[in-house]
Every structure is written in structure tokens, then in C-alpha cells.
Design goal:
This protein has about 100 residues and is of the alpha+beta class. It has 2 helices and 7 strands, in the order H-H-E-E-E-E-E-E-E. It has one domain.
Length: about 100
């Protein structure tokens, strides 16, 4: 209990997140055809993008991609509506595996 008194509210929230808010190895939705670079979470489910504490982790063929170097996140319905879309720097091909780990708000 004393530890929480010394932590900011933001840090306390990052430590004690409910397990039902985690999404693990969720396949991203979008056509993998070597040309498409825009993908969304299943059902356009919003994810927490609260750097440096939380953000979506995107994987291509098992390798974790780097935010800004390999992809960016956007709010498809405009600012303040919630992050639900990933735009990759390079388009994946048909046999590539694209998935993500994230937390819903």
C-alpha cells in the first residue's frame, strides 16, 4: 500500500491492469497482397497508445516491429476517437503473418 502512495496515478494504472483488457497475438485485419500497408484491429477495437507506458506491439513473421521505424498508429475516425489502425512502412505478402499485442482502454 505504501508503494502506491509514491507512484503517480499513471504508473499505478500501468502496474495493475485487469487481465481481460489484454489482447495477445491478435491477427490484424487487412489484405496481405504486397501492396496494402493499412491494417486494423479486429472489429476496429481501440487500443491504448500511451507512450512510454503502453502501446501496441506489432509482429511480422514473429519479429517485433519498431514504432515509427516500421509502422505508425492512427485514429481512423479522427483525433480523439481512439487508436485502431496500423500503417506499415512496407507491405506484407500473402504468406506473411501479421499480428499484435495490445491493451484496450
Amino acid at each position: 500500500m505504501y508503494l502506491i502512495n509514491y507512484l503517480s496515478l499513471q504508473v499505478a494504472r500501468t502496474i495493475f491492469i485487469a487481465a481481460d483488457r489484454f489482447r495477445d497475438a491478435q491477427g490484424l485485419v487487412g489484405s496481405r497482397d504486397g501492396a496494402n500497408v493499412t491494417f486494423s484491429t479486429p472489429g476496429h477495437e481501440h487500443f491504448v497508445q500511451n507512450l512510454p507506458f503502453f502501446g501496441i506491439n506489432v509482429y511480422l513473421n514473429g519479429m517485433r516491429l519498431a514504432l515509427l521505424d516500421d509502422y505508425v498508429t492512427i485514429e481512423s475516425l479522427g483525433p480523439g476517437t481512439g487508436f485502431d489502425t496500423i500503417v506499415l512502412n512496407e507491405a506484407p505478402f500473402t504468406d506473411d503473418h501479421l499480428f499484435a499485442d495490445y491493451i484496450i482502454p
